[in-house]
Specification:
Layout lengths: L27 H6 L2 H6 L1 H19 L6 E5 L5 H10 L4 E6 L2 H13 L5 E5 L10 E7 L8 H10 L1 E12 L6 H14 L19 H10 L3 E15 L3 H11 L3 H6 L2 H14 L4 E2 L2 E14 L3
Parallel strand pairs: 1-2, 1-4, 2-3, 4-5
Antiparallel strand pairs: 5-8, 6-8, 7-8
Helix pairs in contact: 7-11, 9-11
Amino acid sequence: MFAPQPIVPVDPGDLEWFDRRVTDPSEQSAFWDERADAWARHADAMEAFSGQFGAFAVDALAPRPGQEIADVGCGPGTTTVELARRVQPDGSVTGVDVSVRMVEAARARAASAGLDDVRFEVTDPGAGPIGSFDGIHSRFGVMFFDDPSAAFTNLARSLRPGGRFAAVVWAELDANPWIFVPTLFAAGPLGAALTIPGPGEPGPFSLADPEQTATLLDSCGFREVEVVRKEGAWTFDEASADDSIAQMVSVGALGDAWTAADGDARTAAVEAVRAGCDDFRRDGGWRLPAAALVVSASVQH
């Protein structure tokens, strides 16, 4: 087993590593479209990491057979497929994403799983209610809303009386070395010039404050809001290190730079990340801490 690794304190103001387009609503679709191939290709590997947190959100939602569920920010469809299995028989799931190419990848995944009770829509919750559902789920998708108040209000209006909402979002930046360590060390070799989103801007840490997030949901029509912190880690061993690092860099904030880089730059980036992760070596492998918040609520209207 890996021993616990102390969290490395980081001042977000010192970091410049995230593509500014993620804060621009007019470009978010393109931002995620460009990552769709990598996300689909590495979906199973990502599931092994993200699933450790996503399982808590699914449990909080507690989908039951026969229910109609929406999966917001469905990406390549791994969570949508899992939810569809939970509501069988007679239930249905709608995967929602702003990215056309993510939805295409999700449709392909659902089809390969033989599921005919799943559908997908290219929809932005910020533009209006997304339908009428018994439950709404999201795994690391709701942090990127351009107007969180409008989007969460629309999600609340998309739930039937007594409906449930459950999502998992990233906790504060300095509790997530798995994100900032690979990005910081790979940026130089890949020639990336990135900037972290500022306070209140769409981005992976926009909902990291538990009290502010609970207050936001309450103001948008949700009730019985609960926020629970969960700890985990990104782990990999010597045999899988290069592949694990390459996968993580290619699907993250440096996705564009990774795609544009030649083989030498990619190799240099992986080597730089390996060196940057030395402080996180544990028992023949690496363990980079991760922390998330499971947010759950209901509506009474």
